[in-house]
Inverse folding.
């Protein structure tokens, strides 16, 4: 799941460090895909560091439940087939795009139906002290956190997750993600076609997209 979908499960918490932990695995991956940390079983003397670890573990649980669900398997496969004609000549594989597109559509629906507030998400991130984050990263085994903090400050400053509320921007968001791997993944014509496909698929998901959140919530509380 994407940033905002992870935030949904802890949207009522007042603990900014827990919220940070729920999205930190993806933030680190976006900052530098070679960073690999496994703090899952660590315990610190500082409660705020432990809150980040608890949030990290929540992230892993949510992703595991999401990716093993029939919802994910069915929806990502449908998107893969629908998007394939728009990807002729593109280096991007339909399976990869179907996976990412589904997560972006879900985030869009959370925002456009008022299930979460993107401002509240960024407020949580802004409430976390940099020295605490650095202490966690060092404790988890990251020797040099400069690359992460450069990305993280840009992530908070740009607040680009606001654009996820704009349905016509979903294809653009997909392109931004793909450009981390491929320099020029789509032509303007492909992007326009993808927008039409994603807009129609979003309408199909509108009435039942919350089922996956209910399913995961049930699994989280049943552990």
């Amino acid at each position: 799941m994407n940033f905002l979908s992870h935030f949904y499960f802890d949207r009522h918490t007042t603990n900014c460090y827990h919220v940070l932990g729920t999205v930190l695995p993806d933030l680190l991956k976006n900052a530098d895909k070679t960073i690999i940390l496994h703090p899952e079983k660590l315990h610190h003397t500082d409660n705020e560091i432990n809150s980040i670890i608890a949030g990290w573990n929540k992230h892993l649980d949510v992703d595991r439940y999401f990716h093993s669900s029939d919802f994910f398997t069915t929806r990502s496969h449908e998107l893969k087939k629908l998007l394939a004609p728009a990807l002729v000549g593109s280096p991007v594989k339909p399976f990869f795009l179907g996976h990412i597109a589904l997560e972006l559509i879900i985030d869009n629906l959370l925002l456009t139906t008022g299930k979460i507030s993107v401002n509240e998400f960024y407020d949580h991130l802004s409430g976390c002290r940099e020295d605490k984050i650095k202490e966690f990263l060092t404790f988890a085994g990251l020797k040099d956190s400069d690359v992460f903090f450069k990305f993280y400050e840009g992530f908070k400053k740009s607040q680009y997750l606001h654009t996820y509320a704009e349905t016509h921007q979903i294809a653009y968001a997909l392109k931004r993600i793909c450009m981390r791997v491929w320099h020029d993944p789509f032509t303007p014509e492909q992007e326009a076609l993808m927008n039409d496909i994603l807009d129609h698929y979003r309408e199909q998901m509108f009435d039942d997209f919350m089922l996956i959140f209910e399913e995961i919530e049930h699994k989280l509380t049943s552990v």
Q: What stands out?
A: Residues 3-222 form one domain. The chain has a mean pLDDT of 95. Residues 29 and 36 are 8 Å apart (CA to CA). DSSP finds eleven helices and no strands in the chain.
